[in-house]
Amino acid sequence: MTPSTADHAQMSVKEFEQIAHHTPETVTLEFINGKLEVKHVPDGAHDEIIMWVADQCMQSRAELRLYRERGLKVETYRNGRARPDGALAPRGHFANHGEWSDPGGVLMVTEVTSYDGDTHSRDRKEKRDGYAAADIPVYLLIDRDSNELVVYTDPRNGAYKARRSHPFGATVTLPDPVAITLDTDELKNYIS
After folding, report:
1. CATH number for the domain that contains residue 70
2. Total domains present in the chain
3. Three-state SS across the chain?
4. Residue among 49, 20, 34, 2 at smallest CA distance from 130
5. Within a domain: 174
6. Is 92 left (phi over 0), alpha (psi -120 to 50) or beta?
7. Which domain holds residue 148?
8. Is residue 72 part of a domain?
9. For residues 24 and 164, what is the distance between their CA atoms, to the nearest angstrom?
10. What is the pTM of this model?
11. pLDDT 10s per residue in the chain (192 long)?
12. Does residue 53 lie in a domain region?
């Protein structure tokens, strides 16, 4: 049996953090499942979707903020580093954090799929599993390929035990601790 990349990481977390720290702002790096990954620059519709999520969250729960591209320590023993499109946490939660935060206190992470070749493994598998391993209660995947919201909940033993999908246009209530209802009809405007 061939060892997984996680068993033989390309580099240490410390080496990754040094590289990521010195990378120009035009490039975003992540360290998922022992691999260095480049996060693609989002398109305009991607940005609109994240702003839509942020607006919905603030309108429903003014004490929360959706932090964009917040560096989080994920995966088992926090050996991964991810920058979700959005991390929902109480206002001021990250005030005294460095570049990479422990995910404790994050209520939800959001990813919007990109139109690139590795979105399937990155957003639908690797990041999902990293967020579950970090015990983030809700993972909201806005999947532009299937035109649906996928809500993952109940993280246990490194995996989300519940998965519900909803087509764009549906009214979706995100479970506790998020407790926000999303009217997703607007998302139809942002699909190709």
Report:
1. 3.90.1570.10
2. 1
3. CCCCCCCCCCCCHHHHHHHHHCCCCCCEEEEECCEEEEECCCCHHHHHHHHHHHHHHHHHCCCEEEECCCCEEECHHHCEEECCCEEEEECCCCCCCCCCECCCCCCEEEEECCCCCCHHHHHHHHHHHHHHHCCCCEEEEEECCCCEEEEEEEEECCEEEEEEEEECCCEEEECCCCCEEEEHHHHHHHCC
4. 34
5. yes
6. left
7. 42-190
8. yes
9. 37
10. 0.78
11. 333 444 567 767 677 777 777 676 655 665 666 766 665 556 678 889 999 999 999 999 999 999 998 999 987 655 788 889 999 999 999 999 988 999 999 999 999 987 666 655 677 788 898 999 999 999 999 998 899 999 999 999 989 999 999 999 999 999 999 999 999 999 999 887
12. yes
Q: Tell the residue number behind the tokens 């601790």, with chain if given.
A: 177
User: Would 55 be classed as within a structural domain?
Assistant: yes
Phi, psi angle pair for 76, to nearest 5°: -55, 135
Whole-angstrom distance, CA of residue 127 vs CA of residue 74: 9
Would you give the distance in Å from CA 123 to the centre of its chain?
8
Q: Which residue has the tokens 């422990």?
A: 102
d(CA 67, CA 62): 14
- Cβ-based neighbours of 108, under 8 Å, separated by 6 or more: 86, 87, 88, 136, 137, 138, 139, 140, 174, 178
